[in-house]
Amino acid sequence: EMSAQERAFQERIDAGIKIEPKDWMPEAYRKTLIRQISQHAHSEIVGMLPEGNWISRAPSLKRKAILLAKVQDEAGHGLYLYSAAETLGVSRDQLVDELHAGRAKYSSIFNYPTLTWADIGTIGWLVDGAAIMNQIPLCRCSFGPYSRAMIRVCKEESFHQRQGYDLLISLCRDGTAEQKAMAQDALNRWWWPALMMFGPSDAESVHSAQSQAWRIKIFSNDELRQRFVDQTVPQAEYLGLTIPDPDLKWNAERGHYDFGAIDWDEFYNVLKGNGPCNRERLRARRQAWEDGAWVRDAAIAHAEKRAARTAQ
Ligand code: FAQ
Protein backbone atom coordinates (compact mmCIF):
# COMPACT_ATOMS: atom_id res chain seq x y z
CA GLU A 1 0.00 0.00 0.00
CA MET A 2 1.47 3.34 -1.09
CA SER A 3 1.30 6.39 1.18
CA ALA A 4 0.03 9.69 -0.28
CA GLN A 5 3.63 10.89 -0.34
CA GLU A 6 4.76 7.81 -2.26
CA ARG A 7 1.88 8.18 -4.71
CA ALA A 8 2.79 11.80 -5.38
CA PHE A 9 6.41 10.75 -5.88
CA GLN A 10 5.42 8.04 -8.37
CA GLU A 11 3.20 10.52 -10.23
CA ARG A 12 6.13 12.90 -10.65
CA ILE A 13 8.23 10.07 -12.05
CA ASP A 14 5.46 8.97 -14.40
CA ALA A 15 5.18 12.57 -15.62
CA GLY A 16 8.89 12.56 -16.46
CA ILE A 17 9.83 15.12 -13.79
CA LYS A 18 13.37 14.67 -12.44
CA ILE A 19 13.93 13.92 -8.78
CA GLU A 20 16.56 16.19 -7.22
CA PRO A 21 18.68 15.46 -4.09
CA LYS A 22 16.66 17.66 -1.72
CA ASP A 23 13.28 16.31 -2.86
CA TRP A 24 11.49 13.77 -0.72
CA MET A 25 12.09 10.22 -1.91
CA PRO A 26 11.27 6.73 -0.60
CA GLU A 27 14.19 5.24 1.33
CA ALA A 28 14.26 2.28 -1.06
CA TYR A 29 14.66 4.63 -4.04
CA ARG A 30 17.60 6.30 -2.30
CA LYS A 31 19.14 2.94 -1.46
CA THR A 32 18.75 1.60 -4.98
CA LEU A 33 20.40 4.66 -6.46
CA ILE A 34 23.28 4.58 -3.99
CA ARG A 35 23.78 0.92 -4.87
CA GLN A 36 23.70 1.40 -8.61
CA ILE A 37 25.63 4.68 -8.82
CA SER A 38 28.35 3.48 -6.43
CA GLN A 39 28.73 0.18 -8.31
CA HIS A 40 28.97 2.18 -11.47
CA ALA A 41 31.63 4.48 -9.93
CA HIS A 42 33.64 1.50 -8.64
CA SER A 43 33.45 -0.05 -12.12
CA GLU A 44 35.00 3.02 -13.67
CA ILE A 45 37.83 3.08 -11.13
CA VAL A 46 38.56 -0.67 -11.15
CA GLY A 47 38.06 -0.52 -14.92
CA MET A 48 41.20 1.60 -15.23
CA LEU A 49 43.36 -1.35 -14.19
CA PRO A 50 43.03 -3.78 -17.14
CA GLU A 51 43.83 -1.07 -19.67
CA GLY A 52 46.35 0.70 -17.44
CA ASN A 53 48.31 -2.53 -17.72
CA TRP A 54 49.15 -1.62 -21.35
CA ILE A 55 49.93 2.11 -21.16
CA SER A 56 53.67 1.55 -20.88
CA ARG A 57 53.58 -1.02 -23.69
CA ALA A 58 51.46 0.79 -26.30
CA PRO A 59 53.02 0.24 -29.75
CA SER A 60 53.26 3.92 -30.78
CA LEU A 61 53.20 7.41 -29.32
CA LYS A 62 49.78 8.01 -30.88
CA ARG A 63 48.26 4.84 -29.37
CA LYS A 64 49.81 5.66 -26.01
CA ALA A 65 48.34 9.18 -26.01
CA ILE A 66 44.91 7.79 -26.89
CA LEU A 67 45.03 5.12 -24.19
CA LEU A 68 46.26 7.58 -21.55
CA ALA A 69 43.37 9.92 -22.39
CA LYS A 70 40.86 7.06 -22.19
CA VAL A 71 42.05 5.80 -18.82
CA GLN A 72 42.06 9.36 -17.45
CA ASP A 73 38.47 9.78 -18.67
CA GLU A 74 37.53 6.68 -16.66
CA ALA A 75 39.00 8.25 -13.51
CA GLY A 76 36.92 11.34 -14.25
CA HIS A 77 33.77 9.26 -14.67
CA GLY A 78 34.41 7.55 -11.36
CA LEU A 79 34.81 10.86 -9.51
CA TYR A 80 31.76 12.32 -11.22
CA LEU A 81 29.70 9.30 -10.18
CA TYR A 82 30.95 9.32 -6.58
CA SER A 83 29.83 12.96 -6.43
CA ALA A 84 26.39 12.02 -7.78
CA ALA A 85 26.15 9.31 -5.10
CA GLU A 86 27.18 11.80 -2.38
CA THR A 87 24.13 13.94 -3.16
CA LEU A 88 22.12 11.02 -1.71
CA GLY A 89 23.74 11.34 1.71
CA VAL A 90 26.67 8.92 1.67
CA SER A 91 30.32 9.90 1.71
CA ARG A 92 32.88 8.86 -0.83
CA ASP A 93 35.04 7.45 1.98
CA GLN A 94 32.19 5.17 3.02
CA LEU A 95 31.72 3.92 -0.53
CA VAL A 96 35.42 3.34 -1.06
CA ASP A 97 35.60 1.47 2.27
CA GLU A 98 32.85 -0.85 1.07
CA LEU A 99 34.79 -1.56 -2.11
CA HIS A 100 38.06 -2.22 -0.29
CA ALA A 101 36.33 -4.48 2.22
CA GLY A 102 35.04 -6.58 -0.68
CA ARG A 103 31.40 -5.79 0.15
CA ALA A 104 30.60 -3.58 -2.86
CA LYS A 105 30.15 -4.88 -6.36
CA TYR A 106 31.70 -3.56 -9.56
CA SER A 107 31.18 -4.81 -13.09
CA SER A 108 32.14 -8.45 -13.59
CA ILE A 109 33.96 -7.57 -16.84
CA PHE A 110 36.93 -5.98 -15.07
CA ASN A 111 37.90 -9.27 -13.45
CA TYR A 112 39.31 -10.62 -16.70
CA PRO A 113 42.96 -10.17 -17.71
CA THR A 114 44.31 -8.12 -20.63
CA LEU A 115 46.74 -10.59 -22.18
CA THR A 116 47.64 -8.91 -25.48
CA TRP A 117 47.51 -5.50 -27.18
CA ALA A 118 44.44 -6.67 -29.12
CA ASP A 119 42.59 -6.79 -25.78
CA ILE A 120 42.84 -3.00 -25.61
CA GLY A 121 41.01 -2.62 -28.92
CA THR A 122 38.50 -5.27 -27.94
CA ILE A 123 37.71 -3.58 -24.62
CA GLY A 124 37.01 -0.30 -26.41
CA TRP A 125 34.87 -2.01 -29.02
CA LEU A 126 32.90 -4.40 -26.81
CA VAL A 127 33.13 -3.15 -23.23
CA ASP A 128 32.64 0.52 -24.03
CA GLY A 129 30.12 -0.49 -26.70
CA ALA A 130 28.10 -2.36 -24.07
CA ALA A 131 28.56 0.47 -21.58
CA ILE A 132 27.09 3.00 -24.05
CA MET A 133 24.15 0.73 -24.84
CA ASN A 134 23.36 0.60 -21.13
CA GLN A 135 24.13 4.25 -20.34
CA ILE A 136 22.45 6.22 -23.15
CA PRO A 137 19.03 5.39 -21.64
CA LEU A 138 20.36 6.43 -18.21
CA CYS A 139 20.66 10.00 -19.55
CA ARG A 140 16.85 9.96 -19.25
CA CYS A 141 16.65 8.31 -15.82
CA SER A 142 14.58 9.87 -13.06
CA PHE A 143 17.37 11.03 -10.74
CA GLY A 144 18.67 14.42 -11.90
CA PRO A 145 22.36 14.27 -10.89
CA TYR A 146 22.80 10.75 -12.32
CA SER A 147 21.03 11.55 -15.57
CA ARG A 148 23.09 14.71 -16.10
CA ALA A 149 26.37 12.94 -15.30
CA MET A 150 25.55 10.34 -17.94
CA ILE A 151 25.41 12.89 -20.75
CA ARG A 152 29.08 13.77 -20.57
CA VAL A 153 30.07 10.20 -19.69
CA CYS A 154 28.33 8.87 -22.81
CA LYS A 155 30.06 11.38 -25.07
CA GLU A 156 33.42 10.20 -23.75
CA GLU A 157 32.43 6.53 -23.95
CA SER A 158 31.60 6.91 -27.61
CA PHE A 159 35.14 8.20 -28.25
CA HIS A 160 36.39 5.18 -26.27
CA GLN A 161 34.37 2.78 -28.38
CA ARG A 162 35.59 4.42 -31.57
CA GLN A 163 39.27 4.27 -30.60
CA GLY A 164 38.93 0.57 -29.80
CA TYR A 165 37.31 -0.21 -33.13
CA ASP A 166 39.94 1.87 -34.93
CA LEU A 167 42.68 -0.12 -33.20
CA LEU A 168 41.05 -3.36 -34.37
CA ILE A 169 40.72 -2.05 -37.93
CA SER A 170 44.49 -1.55 -37.88
CA LEU A 171 45.06 -5.11 -36.69
CA CYS A 172 42.42 -6.87 -38.78
CA ARG A 173 42.27 -5.00 -42.07
CA ASP A 174 45.68 -3.38 -42.36
CA GLY A 175 47.65 -5.82 -40.20
CA THR A 176 49.47 -9.13 -40.64
CA ALA A 177 47.87 -12.57 -40.32
CA GLU A 178 49.40 -12.81 -36.85
CA GLN A 179 47.82 -9.52 -35.79
CA LYS A 180 44.44 -10.61 -37.05
CA ALA A 181 44.78 -13.91 -35.17
CA MET A 182 45.59 -11.94 -32.02
CA ALA A 183 42.37 -9.92 -32.49
CA GLN A 184 40.34 -13.11 -33.01
CA ASP A 185 41.78 -14.56 -29.82
CA ALA A 186 40.83 -11.40 -27.93
CA LEU A 187 37.28 -11.55 -29.29
CA ASN A 188 37.03 -15.22 -28.26
CA ARG A 189 37.92 -14.33 -24.68
CA TRP A 190 35.89 -11.08 -24.30
CA TRP A 191 32.66 -11.85 -26.15
CA TRP A 192 30.81 -13.79 -23.46
CA PRO A 193 31.99 -11.65 -20.53
CA ALA A 194 30.80 -8.57 -22.51
CA LEU A 195 27.30 -10.08 -22.81
CA MET A 196 27.32 -10.69 -19.05
CA MET A 197 27.84 -6.96 -18.39
CA PHE A 198 24.10 -6.42 -18.95
CA GLY A 199 23.35 -8.44 -15.84
CA PRO A 200 21.29 -11.57 -15.22
CA SER A 201 18.45 -12.57 -17.51
CA ASP A 202 15.20 -10.67 -16.91
CA ALA A 203 13.76 -13.72 -15.15
CA GLU A 204 16.62 -13.64 -12.60
CA SER A 205 17.00 -9.87 -12.28
CA VAL A 206 15.83 -9.03 -8.77
CA HIS A 207 15.86 -5.25 -9.07
CA SER A 208 14.49 -4.73 -12.59
CA ALA A 209 10.76 -4.41 -11.93
CA GLN A 210 11.09 -1.78 -9.20
CA SER A 211 13.89 0.08 -10.99
CA GLN A 212 11.81 0.24 -14.17
CA ALA A 213 8.81 1.57 -12.25
CA TRP A 214 11.07 4.28 -10.83
CA ARG A 215 12.60 4.97 -14.25
CA ILE A 216 16.06 4.20 -12.96
CA LYS A 217 16.08 1.56 -15.66
CA ILE A 218 14.35 2.29 -18.96
CA PHE A 219 15.05 -1.03 -20.73
CA SER A 220 15.49 -4.50 -19.35
CA ASN A 221 18.81 -6.38 -19.16
CA ASP A 222 17.78 -8.77 -21.95
CA GLU A 223 16.51 -5.98 -24.23
CA LEU A 224 19.81 -4.14 -24.03
CA ARG A 225 21.81 -7.34 -24.47
CA GLN A 226 19.85 -8.14 -27.63
CA ARG A 227 20.44 -4.65 -29.03
CA PHE A 228 24.13 -5.00 -28.32
CA VAL A 229 24.33 -8.30 -30.20
CA ASP A 230 22.37 -6.88 -33.14
CA GLN A 231 24.67 -3.86 -33.34
CA THR A 232 27.92 -5.76 -32.90
CA VAL A 233 27.54 -8.66 -35.36
CA PRO A 234 27.92 -6.49 -38.50
CA GLN A 235 30.91 -4.75 -36.90
CA ALA A 236 32.60 -8.13 -36.41
CA GLU A 237 31.83 -8.99 -40.03
CA TYR A 238 33.49 -5.79 -41.23
CA LEU A 239 36.61 -6.74 -39.26
CA GLY A 240 36.49 -10.26 -40.71
CA LEU A 241 36.30 -11.76 -37.22
CA THR A 242 34.11 -14.66 -36.07
CA ILE A 243 31.97 -14.29 -32.97
CA PRO A 244 32.62 -17.38 -30.82
CA ASP A 245 29.01 -18.57 -30.75
CA PRO A 246 27.93 -21.45 -33.03
CA ASP A 247 24.27 -20.67 -32.27
CA LEU A 248 24.48 -17.06 -33.47
CA LYS A 249 22.05 -16.73 -36.35
CA TRP A 250 19.87 -14.02 -37.92
CA ASN A 251 16.21 -14.65 -37.16
CA ALA A 252 14.18 -12.91 -39.87
CA GLU A 253 10.92 -13.53 -38.06
CA ARG A 254 12.07 -11.77 -34.89
CA GLY A 255 14.18 -9.24 -36.75
CA HIS A 256 17.04 -9.99 -34.34
CA TYR A 257 20.01 -12.29 -34.02
CA ASP A 258 19.43 -15.43 -31.98
CA PHE A 259 22.40 -16.27 -29.79
CA GLY A 260 23.62 -19.13 -27.62
CA ALA A 261 23.17 -19.69 -23.89
CA ILE A 262 25.25 -17.60 -21.50
CA ASP A 263 27.25 -19.48 -18.88
CA TRP A 264 25.54 -18.02 -15.82
CA ASP A 265 27.62 -20.17 -13.48
CA GLU A 266 30.67 -18.28 -14.68
CA PHE A 267 28.88 -14.94 -14.13
CA TYR A 268 27.80 -15.70 -10.56
CA ASN A 269 31.20 -17.14 -9.78
CA VAL A 270 32.87 -13.88 -10.82
CA LEU A 271 30.33 -11.94 -8.70
CA LYS A 272 31.29 -14.08 -5.71
CA GLY A 273 34.90 -12.97 -6.09
CA ASN A 274 36.26 -15.99 -7.92
CA GLY A 275 36.96 -14.56 -11.37
CA PRO A 276 40.48 -14.72 -12.82
CA CYS A 277 41.52 -11.28 -11.46
CA ASN A 278 39.14 -10.39 -8.59
CA ARG A 279 41.82 -10.66 -5.92
CA GLU A 280 44.42 -8.83 -7.97
CA ARG A 281 42.03 -5.95 -8.71
CA LEU A 282 41.09 -5.42 -5.07
CA ARG A 283 44.71 -5.68 -3.99
CA ALA A 284 45.68 -2.99 -6.54
CA ARG A 285 42.91 -0.65 -5.38
CA ARG A 286 43.77 -1.06 -1.68
CA GLN A 287 47.45 -0.50 -2.41
CA ALA A 288 46.67 2.67 -4.40
CA TRP A 289 44.56 3.94 -1.50
CA GLU A 290 47.33 3.30 1.03
CA ASP A 291 49.98 4.82 -1.23
CA GLY A 292 47.84 7.96 -1.57
CA ALA A 293 47.31 8.42 2.18
CA TRP A 294 50.08 11.03 2.50
CA VAL A 295 48.48 13.15 -0.22
CA ARG A 296 45.12 13.13 1.57
CA ASP A 297 46.79 13.89 4.91
CA ALA A 298 48.75 16.78 3.40
CA ALA A 299 45.63 18.22 1.73
CA ILE A 300 43.72 18.10 5.04
CA ALA A 301 46.61 19.67 6.98
CA HIS A 302 46.87 22.42 4.37
CA ALA A 303 43.13 23.12 4.50
CA GLU A 304 43.23 23.27 8.30
CA LYS A 305 46.13 25.75 8.29
CA ARG A 306 44.35 27.97 5.81
CA ALA A 307 41.14 27.85 7.84
CA ALA A 308 43.08 28.74 11.01
CA ARG A 309 44.73 31.66 9.23
CA THR A 310 41.44 33.15 7.97
CA ALA A 311 39.84 32.65 11.40
CA GLN A 312 42.48 34.91 13.06
N1 FAQ B 1 28.68 -7.27 -12.76
O1 FAQ B 1 18.73 -7.18 -10.48
P1 FAQ B 1 19.90 -6.92 -11.35
C1 FAQ B 1 31.89 0.95 -17.32
C2 FAQ B 1 24.46 -7.54 -9.91
S1 FAQ B 1 30.53 0.00 -17.73
C3 FAQ B 1 28.56 -7.28 -11.44
O2 FAQ B 1 19.70 -7.01 -12.81
P2 FAQ B 1 20.33 -4.05 -11.53
C4 FAQ B 1 32.55 1.80 -18.39
C5 FAQ B 1 23.58 -6.39 -9.48
O3 FAQ B 1 24.38 -5.32 -9.02
C6 FAQ B 1 30.16 -1.07 -16.34
N2 FAQ B 1 27.38 -7.32 -10.80
O4 FAQ B 1 20.57 -5.51 -10.92
C7 FAQ B 1 33.95 1.43 -18.60
C8 FAQ B 1 22.74 -7.03 -8.42
O5 FAQ B 1 23.50 -7.20 -7.23
P3 FAQ B 1 23.18 -6.37 -5.84
C9 FAQ B 1 29.41 -0.39 -15.22
C10 FAQ B 1 26.28 -7.32 -11.58
O6 FAQ B 1 21.16 -3.11 -10.73
C11 FAQ B 1 34.36 0.83 -19.79
C12 FAQ B 1 22.53 -8.41 -8.99
O7 FAQ B 1 23.59 -8.65 -9.89
N3 FAQ B 1 28.12 0.08 -15.65
O8 FAQ B 1 32.26 0.91 -16.21
C13 FAQ B 1 26.33 -7.29 -12.97
O9 FAQ B 1 18.91 -3.76 -11.68
C14 FAQ B 1 35.67 0.47 -20.02
C15 FAQ B 1 21.18 -8.58 -9.67
O10 FAQ B 1 21.12 -7.90 -10.92
C16 FAQ B 1 27.11 0.29 -14.78
O11 FAQ B 1 27.24 0.05 -13.60
C17 FAQ B 1 27.59 -7.26 -13.57
N4 FAQ B 1 27.76 -7.26 -14.90
O12 FAQ B 1 20.96 -4.14 -13.02
C18 FAQ B 1 34.95 1.68 -17.63
C19 FAQ B 1 25.83 0.85 -15.37
N5 FAQ B 1 25.06 -7.31 -13.46
O13 FAQ B 1 23.45 -4.92 -6.16
C20 FAQ B 1 36.28 1.30 -17.85
C21 FAQ B 1 24.79 1.16 -14.34
C22 FAQ B 1 24.25 -7.37 -12.38
O14 FAQ B 1 21.75 -6.62 -5.49
C23 FAQ B 1 36.63 0.69 -19.06
N6 FAQ B 1 24.21 -0.03 -13.76
N7 FAQ B 1 24.97 -7.39 -11.26
O15 FAQ B 1 24.16 -6.90 -4.84
C24 FAQ B 1 23.12 -0.69 -14.28
O16 FAQ B 1 22.58 -0.30 -15.31
C25 FAQ B 1 22.57 -1.86 -13.52
O17 FAQ B 1 23.06 -1.80 -12.21
C26 FAQ B 1 22.89 -3.25 -14.15
C27 FAQ B 1 22.33 -4.35 -13.23
C28 FAQ B 1 22.24 -3.36 -15.53
C29 FAQ B 1 24.40 -3.44 -14.28
TrEMBL record:
GO terms for cellular component: cytosol. This is Ring-1,2-phenylacetyl-CoA epoxidase subunit PaaA. It comes from Plasticicumulans lactativorans. GO terms for biological process: phenylacetate catabolic process. GO terms for molecular function: phenylacetyl-CoA 1,2-epoxidase activity.
